[in-house]
Amino acid sequence: MTETPQETLANLLSEDRTFPPSPEFTRSANVTESAYDEAAADRLAFWETQARRLDWTKEWDQTLDWSNPPFAKWFTGGELNVAVNCLDRHVEAGLGDRVAIHFEGEPGDTRTVTYAEMLDEVKRAANALTDLGVEAGDRVVIYMPMIPQAAVAMLACARIGAPHSVVFGGFSVDALSSRIEDAGAKVVITADGGFRKGKASALKPTVDAAAERCPSIEKVLVVRRTGEDVEWHDRDLWWHETVDTASNEHEARSFDAEHPLFILYTSGTTGRPKGILHTSGGYLTQTAYTHHAVFDLKPETDVYWCAADIGWVTGHSYVVYGPMANGATQVMYEGTPDTPHKGRIWEIVEKYGVSILYTAPTAIRTYMKWGDDIPDRFDLSSLRVLGSVGEPINPEAWMWYREHIGHDKCPVVDTWWQTETGAIMVSPLPGVTATKPGSAQRPLPGISVDVVDDEGESVPNGGGGFLTIREPWPSMLRTIWGDDQRFLDTYWSRFANMYFAGDGAKRDDDGDIWLLGRVDDVMLVSGHNISTTEVESALVSHDTVAEAAVVGATDPLTGQGIVAFVILRGATESSPEHLAELRGHVASTLGPIAKPRQVMVVSELPKTRSGKIMRRLLRDIAEDRKLGDVTTLQDSSVMARIKEGLQARSED
Ligand code: WT7
Known about the structure:
By secondary structure, this protein is α/β, with parallel strands linked by helices. Helices cover 32% and strands 21% of the residues.
């Protein structure tokens, strides 16, 4: 194509519903409009105020050192211990009996862990790790199910200054070994297995195989969870024989604010995994502040539940570090949402009186597909704030979440951030913002997010472009582990002096931000850049569509043509008239330029394990190519099933 498109990214969808918070909510909200003014008046002073939520053993000399961009240092010279901030200080304040975790195992076993118990176990685990030869700076890989010991393991590492790298428990030997190797880890903490989909699912054999490949591994510490038989090697130790018998006296030393806290490999849909490095003081400051501000946590009365796995950054920032720094009481659930029945999530909300729920659009769309009658059977009246993260949430799913889960009384906060940003960057504030279905709306106080065009100029209201971050933020990634050059190339080379996140976005007429998906997925149709998100949202707004994924396929006439894959509600077959109606529906919602060339009905979509649609694989199908790399697929057989299904249909 030689013709340069007029706009960077088209703005097609318009939404005029807004939902202001109730006056009662606003009256008791943790954060009010004035936070934006305060941060705008003096951004660094604002973050200093937030850093004072934490206990520092040594005050910092400088709030931000940005003398060598993009390598930021926050709170330089300051010292603290992250684990002490998450546990000891609450116990010292007399809150030892407060529940930290209501654990619900998939088979129905439960465990209540108070802050005092959590601290006791973290001290023992810290001593055990030290006895195994782990020193400050050494890397520990954690490969565990969602059980309290996973949080204990992370906090024990933090306590002794050993950066952890949590690897999602569903990942393969290849994925685990490449991460162990890249991090140079000497200890792995794992479990015999966990419970998923109604049965024990082993983890230890994967670690055994990885340890054979990775000479850096000296010891493997194993929690007994399922009780299934495991192979045993000289390097292996049982948690219950090692941690339970270790001393519960542990003097925590403080670490520099910039001491590495963890490495987390991104769940990216392409390429070699990147070890995102986060450090201590700035990270804990922003996770604690945003958890307080965005979820309006009242630690004395709220029961908080973030349904993410600790293998993702959401599990780091909003299960372990943010909530525990704030002394929250939370629910932790081990299993899948449909075991033993499709109401499990709502049953747990009712049982523990969950008041704040944080989950992903892919989960919300799944619950929608299962039917309204399921949540309707449970008492969800304890809920007061609902959060969404991980993907753009289409207005239809947002409205369903608000109506069927929140019963029209809970603010819905759509939170945009990334593994790289460490904490929430763009989100409504529940006591301040009149929310709009599908929009993440405003950068949080103290955060400078912009939407820019190809040249890096801010787009006006109504325009689309690239989401960038203009000023350093406390919880930003510090580098890619062992690869500063890749850090520069990946995030800082597209635009001068700006972090580019990889996402497309638009500003609506009020200046609110809408995320439009990864720019790699943007479709170029007759000179217009059209986001996958808008077309997918339009499809899902049709009564018969439960989920949709669209891709641009090479087209001789238009450059690319829009090809849509849809999952129907309660049906697996369609008719030519129905498909024509869906194409027409998109055209009438977004304009004729966005009309799909083709709509295909499928029963599943290819997703990563964190629930993101892998559009590149759908593009292979749409262009009738041999399938690309499928290793990060949640379920590798899904592509074959999609292809078979399409063939069967085109033949009959
Ligand atoms: C990518 C980051 C953030 C923790 C979980 C995912 C997409 C995330 C939203 C949102 C639109 C979103 C972006 C982002 N994303 N939240 N609220 N609206 N898109 O972390 O695996 O690092 O993925 O997820 O594309 O860049 P991650």
